[in-house]
Specification:
Oligomer: heterodimer
CATH architecture of chain A: Orthogonal Bundle
Helix content of chain A: over 70%
Number of helices of chain A: 9
Number of strands of chain A: 0
Number of domains of chain B: 6
Radius of gyration of chain B: 64 Å
Distance between the termini of chain B: 94 Å
Shape of chain B: flat
Largest sheet of chain B: 5 strands, mixed
CATH class of chain A: Mainly Alpha
Order of helices and strands of chain A: HHHHHHHHH
Largest sheet of chain A: none
CATH topology of chain A: Rna Polymerase Sigma Factor, Chain: A
Structural class of chain A: mainly alpha
Strand order of the largest sheet of chain B: 2-3-5-1-4
Helix content of chain B: 40-55%
Number of domains of chain A: 1
Number of helices of chain B: 17
Strand content of chain A: under 5%
CATH superfamily of chain A: RNA polymerase sigma factor, region 2, helix turn helix motif
Distance between the termini of chain A: 43 Å
Radius of gyration of chain A: 18 Å
Largest interface: A-B, 46 and 42 residues
Number of strands of chain B: 15
Chain lengths: 177, 664
């Protein structure tokens, strides 16, 4: 993290609105990737990002160390997404309708469906890592930082995620070949 | 170390995401060349990656995403105004928080210190206030009295000017002539008030007390002075005349006189004199010469504040009245409003009258000092006459109470002028005892004759006379007081002879072989000698001893004869004689009762019924019978304990036998 970035985080923590808006610009996509990874739903993910930003602004004074600001931001988003996810599970009917709607869209191919259901079986953390990788093309280190993982843990996580997806999609993959 | 093959998924994923170093890439490729399975996996992974990229690319947020987030954020968190925001932000930083806490603490400490120093200095402040209160009004009044001294007579204006709350009275009233009159009246009154007010300092200066310099602050104060004097004089009328003369000398007058004549001819009374305040001290000095001064008080009541307060309120009320009248004249508004104004006007006028009355009263009080002189002639307490009261108590014993009771009544009715029964009571209780109490008033000249007569009715047990000298209309001694004898009060108590205590008591024992016979003899002897048996008893104890007690009462004159006959009738033992000599009372000794208590007894059996072989045998038999009864009882107890068990066991055995027989 360079000095200008740290300065920006510090200013945001101390209530500099412009600095915080700058952070929104630079980080909201990452947050979206995390939320989407967990929820697998764009609308919900957007709402989560929005809520997380508002919450972060209100609670910003809790962060003592400006360097930890991005990690803290993603943590808020992750918690928020988990909350939404849990709420959704307690209301299974809504989830059902969302799924059916998605399934009925014309462009959603059978392959897409399979991929989505395979993704749904993965742990939320794995999904979040995957979406960060594919949406933002972040390297392992940034993903680890964002998700608050220890050094080198991501390698195993992504390995397992890829393997799990591969095994589930093997019949479909074979057919495409 | 784990081989590439074991962690092929991790390696492939890292390869996909470009996370392998050059060395690692070489290792992976080497392995892929060797291992067909991993090659296949590699292929699949690559396909899947492509698929994922394609699919997830659709899900990527659109380019306007950031802008949307920003707008949403701005909508939900509107920007605060500068000061509040900066303050809120400031409070979020730790250093600012610490500073704020320190500032608050310091503030509290400072506050506490201010409070404590305030309480410490409170007494001083109070003193200052007290001084101010003491000195402020004089200053004010001094300022007010300034025009007085200058001789200016337009005091009303001055006064109004001195009081900001008082609206000037002299404002030309636009009302009718009656109102004008009222105004002039009031101002005239005010002037008069001020004149009386200015009298006070003159009085103070005219009669300064020795050793006291009149304080300049006293000027123009409203002081009501009164004095009370208590004097003892030789002649009341003389003193009143002199007081009147003194009052006239000092331009005063006697307001009230009252006097009372006591039973001993002495006079006591009160004179109230009104005198100009400046002459009060001189007047008091003169009065002291009249007689012996018992008590004197000199009081001053300061009504300055109340007086001027009332004065100011009166002025306010007048202005109010004026306004109300104007309001009525313009006659705009509803009837109910006008009525309200009328009502208010009435109330204000009532207030004005009350205050005027108050001021007038004070003026009268201020104009003259009141001296209350209590006069009493010397030797006030000398008694006018003495009354000698005689009271006698007489206790009589008689054989027939009722007869004497009636005799005394008859005596009273025969001498109706000199003797009167005030109270007579005849009591007879359930045991037949009779007593009577009487109270008789006897004219003093006949008392001796009557008392002697009553005494002769029975035997006198007790006679007491008590004389009391009562002073009338005073106390102490008096040379020339009259002496009068009052009626003699005689209280008579009549009781039967039986209840009379014996003059002489004798007790003796006589031993004889036949007790019963002897007792009968004794009765006969007693009756022959004019005595009576009062009570007797007879008893025999288990040893065969007999005992008889006989109490006799005989007149003293027959006592020696009785004793002689007793001596002759048997062996007389243990004689004790007790005699009660009643000194101081004349007693008819010959007829006085003498009690004799005689115990006649016989010798008992030599061998007691309680000992001897027969008695022993009887006791033994009784004891063995008792033992048998006791063991019988114990057996009963044992049976009661054991019987249930025995019955139960027998029953069980019987049932068992029956069962065995039935099986066979």
């Amino acid at each position: 993290m360079d000095a200008s970035e740290r300065e920006q985080y510090r200013a945001a923590i101390h209530g500099d609105r412009e600095a915080f808006e700058m952070i929104i610009r630079t980080h909201s996509r990452t947050l979206f990737a995390i939320a989407y990874g967990i929820l697998q739903n764009r609308e919900e993910a957007e709402d989560v990002v929005q809520d997380s930003l508002v919450k972060a602004w209100k609670m910003r004074w809790r962060v003592r160390d400006p360097e930890k600001f991005p990690a803290w931001l993603s943590m808020i988003a992750r918690h928020r997404a988990h909350d939404v996810f849990r709420k959704r599970r307690s209301l299974p009917s809504t989830h059902e309708t969302i799924e059916t709607i998605e399934a009925n869209t014309p462009e959603a191919s059978a392959m897409d469906q399979q991929l989505h259901s395979a993704l749904a079986t993965l742990p939320a953390l794995h999904r979040a890592a995957l979406s960060l990788r594919y949406f933002e093309e972040m390297d392992y280190r940034s993903i680890e930082n964002t998700l608050g993982l220890t050094n080198g843990a991501l390698r195993g996580i992504l390995g397992r995620a890829v393997a799990s997806l591969r095994k589930q999609l093997r019949p479909a993959l074979a057919s495409t070949d | 170390m784990a081989t590439v093959h074991d962690e092929i998924d991790n390696w492939l994923a890292a390869d996909l995401y470009g996370e392998l170093s050059a060395e690692e890439q070489r290792q992976l490729h080497t392995h892929l060349v060797d291992c067909a399975a991993c090659r296949k996996t590699h292929q699949e992974t690559k396909t899947m990656n492509k698929l994922l990229e394609e699919t997830l690319a659709q899900q990527k947020p659109d380019p306007a995403f950031e802008q949307r987030m920003l707008t949403g954020f701005r909508n939900r968190i509107p920007e605060k105004s500068g000061l509040i925001k900066s303050l809120a932000d400031l409070m979020r930083s730790r250093s600012a928080q610490v500073t704020a806490v320190v500032a608050v603490l310091l503030g509290l400490v400072q506050l506490g210190r201010t409070f404590t120093t305030k309480t410490a200095t409170t007494p001083r402040t109070r003193d200052r206030y007290a001084n101010e209160q003491l000195f402020e009004p004089p200053a004010q009044f001094a300022a007010m009295s300034e025009p007085n001294r200058a001789g200016a007579l337009n005091k009303a204006d001055e006064l109004a000017a001195a009081r900001p709350q008082a609206v000037p009275l002299q404002a030309p009233p636009p009302s009718s002539s009656t109102e004008m009159k009222a105004k002039t009246e009031s101002s005239a009154e005010l002037e008069r008030t001020m004149v009386t007010g200015s009298n006070i300092p003159v009085a103070e200066e005219a009669a300064p007390k020795p050793g006291e310099t009149p304080a300049p602050e006293v000027a123009n104060r409203k002081l009501i002075r009164n004095a009370t004097v208590e004097l003892e004089i030789v002649s009341f009328d003389d003193a009143v005349q002199k007081i009147t003369a003194f009052a006239n000398e000092d331009h005063g007058y006697v307001a009230t006189t009252n006097s009372q004549k006591q039973a001993n001819g002495k006079l006591r009374g009160q004179v109230i004199v009104k005198i100009l305040p400046e002459n009060l001290d001189r007047f008091l000095q003169k009065i002291r010469g009249l007689g012996e001064l018992k008590n004197q008080t000199l009081g001053t009541e300061d009504v300055t504040k109340a007086y001027f307060d009332t004065d100011a309120r009166l002025k306010n009320a007048r202005v109010m009245e004026q306004r109300l009248i104007e309001m009525l004249k313009t006659k705009t508004g509803k009837v109910s409003d006008l009525l309200q104004v009328e009502k208010e006007l009435g109330r204000v006028r009532e207030d004005i009258e009350k205050m005027q009355g108050e001021l007038k009263y004070w003026d009268s009080q201020l104009q003259f000092a009141t001296v209350t002189i209590s006069l009493a002639e010397k030797e006030m307490e000398e008694p006018a006459a003495f009354l000698i009261k005689e009271r006698s108590q007489l206790a009589l014993y008689a054989p027939d109470v009722e007869k004497i009771y009636n005799d005394i009544k008859a005596l009273a009715s025969s001498r109706s002028r000199g003797m009167q029964i005030t109270n007579a009571q005849l009591n007879r209780d359930y045991s037949g005892r009779v007593s009577a109490t009487m109270t008789i008033l006897i004219a003093p000249e006949e008392s001796d004759a009557v008392i002697t007569r009553v005494k002769s009715f029975g035997r006198v047990e007790n006679f007491q006379t008590q004389t009391e000298r009562i002073a009338q209309g005073g106390s102490g001694m008096s040379q020339n007081a009259k002496i009068k004898r009052d009626k003699v009060e005689l209280n008579i108590t009549i009781s039967r002879e039986e209840q009379e205590q014996a003059f002489q008591q004798t007790s003796l024992r006589i031993r004889t072989s036949s007790v019963d016979e002897k007792a009968k003899d004794l009765r006969a002897v007693a009756e022959k000698q004019g005595g009576r048996v009062r009570s007797s008893s007879f008893s025999r104890d288990p040893d065969g001893r007999e005992l008889a007690n006989v109490w006799l009462r005989v007149p003293m004159k027959h006592y020696p004869a009785l004793m002689q006959s007793l001596d002759s009738s048997g062996k007389v033992e243990n004689v004790t004689v007790q005699r009660q000599d009643r000194t101081g009372t004349q007693i008819d000794e010959a007829n006085a009762p003498a009690d004799i208590s005689i115990q006649v007894y016989s010798q008992g059996n030599i061998v007691s019924n309680q000992s001897g072989p027969l008695a022993t045998l009887r006791r033994t038999l009784a004891q063995s019978a008792g033992a048998i009864m006791w063991s019988l009882r114990m057996i009963g107890v044992a049976i009661a304990f054991l019987a249930p068990w025995i019955i139960t066991i027998v029953a069980i055995v019987w049932i068992a036998k029956r069962i065995r027989r039935a099986r066979r």
